[in-house]
């Protein structure tokens, strides 16, 4: 069980405040969507939580200051799938997913049976077992996205932070991806997912943080906070709401 809390987190890049004074407490067993328009600061916020970008304010993991944990300890507690990763080396898919076990390995040690089982589980859950021997640089965008998700799952961390994990996935794999994140949360993990799809966020997330211009515009259960007024204000769109669907229908003039 892993919890993450941010207090007054702010990020300034090129003299611009791209994340502004964000305070949130993220509990184990929840699937939290991070929403907001392009450039709102979603990726930068999750990178700040992970300590990958210098920031103002405080971040704690399980109540301990994040920076008091070693890099390996952080990596074992919080797995991260960055946005749009590019692969440079011709590794097999299996080898790539194996990299997810690195935080668990002592220097120069080999994978244990437990590591291999974790890799098998992650590959099965992300539906990439059939790709195991493929050169990862030859995968389609959607296949690559699922392999990267498998690598993050292979960590078997208590918290999983995924940045646009559904990008390039076909509709069936998008739903499967969200079901998988939901199952992780139901099994006790804290899952934080940067998302663009309002319907999937509404259907699967317990809570959404909506960012606008770097600041939290709202934070709560999607069905309560994703209102026509909020979508107009934050995204500049109109939307049709019904049966758990939120379908953008036009732009606010
Ligand atoms: N290294 C950087 N230097 C300067 N500005 C940056 C840097 N990285 C990001 N930004 C800017 O910070 C803002 C927030 O970027 P971020 O990637 O966090 O947005 P986002 O909400 O994740 O967007 P998207 O939905 O397009 O992925 C953007 O305006 C971006 O151009």
From TrEMBL:
Superkingdom field: Bacteria
Pfam entry (one): ABC_tran
Signal sequence interval, chain numbering: none
Keywords, sorted A to Z: ATP-binding, Nucleotide-binding, Translocase, Transport
InterPro entries: AAA+_ATPase (IPR003593), ABC_transporter-like_ATP-bd (IPR003439), ABC_transporter-like_CS (IPR017871), P-loop_NTPase (IPR027417)
GO MF terms held by the record: ATP binding
ABC transporter domain sequence ranges: 4-238
Task performed by this protein: Part of the ABC transporter complex HmuTUV involved in hemin import. Responsible for energy coupling to the transport system.
Protein name: ABC transporter ATP-binding protein
Organism per entry: Sphingomonas corticis
């Amino acid at each position: 069980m892993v919890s993450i809390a941010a207090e007054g987190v702010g990020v300034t890049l090129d003299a611009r405040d791209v994340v502004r004074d964000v305070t949130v407490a993220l509990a184990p067993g929840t699937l939290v969507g991070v929403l907001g328009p392009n450039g709102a600061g979603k990726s930068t916020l999750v990178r700040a939580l992970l300590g990958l970008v210098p920031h103002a304010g405080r971040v704690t993991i399980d109540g301990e200051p994040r920076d008091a944990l070693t890099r390996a300890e952080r990596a074992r507690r919080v797995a991260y799938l960055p946005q749009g990763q590019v692969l440079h080396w011709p590794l097999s898919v299996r080898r790539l997913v194996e990299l997810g076990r690195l935080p668990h390995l002592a220097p120069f040690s080999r994978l244990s049976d437990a590591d291999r089982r974790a890799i098998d589980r992650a590959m099965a859950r992300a539906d990439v077992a059939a790709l195991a021997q493929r050169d990862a640089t030859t995968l389609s965008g959607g296949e690559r996205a699922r392999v990267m998700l498998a690598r993050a799952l292979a960590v078997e961390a208590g918290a999983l932070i995924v940045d646009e994990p559904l990008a390039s996935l076909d509709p069936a794999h998008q739903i499967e991806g969200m079901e998988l994140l939901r199952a992780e949360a139901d099994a006790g993990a804290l899952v934080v997912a940067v998302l663009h799809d309002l319907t999937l966020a509404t259907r699967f997330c317990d809570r959404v943080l909506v960012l606008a211009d770097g600041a939290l515009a709202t934070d709560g259960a999607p069905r309560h906070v994703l209102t026509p007024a909020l979508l107009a204000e934050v995204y500049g769109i109109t939307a049709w709401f019904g049966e758990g669907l939120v379908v953008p229908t036009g732009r606010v003039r």
